[in-house]
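Contributing new records

If you add data, match the layout below exactly. Sequence lines come first and carry their own label; structure lines follow with theirs. Keep one chain per record. Anything else will be rejected by the validation script.
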Amino acid sequence: MACKIKICGITRFEDAKAALELGADLLGFNFYAKSPRYVHPKIARGIIEKLRRRQGMAGVFVNSPAAEVSQIALEAGLDTLQFHGDENEGYLRQFPDYVLIKAVRVQGDFEAKELRRLAQHVDYLLFDSFSPQQFGGTGREISEALLAELDREGLLNGSFLSGGLTVQNVAERVKAWHLGGVDTASGVESKPGIKDKEKMRAFIAAARSAK
């Protein structure tokens, strides 16, 4: 299975259009109000309607009430939901009609058994670097030692990887691990929420070049 490429933190139509034209598989719209990449659902809906595409349109949520997630997903026209908070298995079961991605901010003391159980309720796990201050978008890489530990536990194969991915390191990461996808926001930006087309072009080309 080819490694999917997700460009996250979309706030403008021109960035969304460029990302898809350059070969991105998924776009991420951040509905966490405290994020510098937050986008209002009406803005996201306008972007997605202009794209005339629903497949691969992902909403990013952090500890939002399930009813609110469902409302935004319908309003914006999403087919994918990505959860970055403390959402558990019972919460995730409330969204059977969507592709589900569960982000895990990993540290060295992760519980492999718990993550395997969580993985049974989603389409993909997404491993991101841990920060006590931020739910993703830190721009920090996950260490090779931690990635190797996740791989030994059978957790990395088919999962998404995020955390400090840039054109300089994405090909190496895709070659080293059997990833289901890669996810970047800050790695292809000129500033939070504003994408750099040439950085996106280079990132996507580098990820695609890795076999």
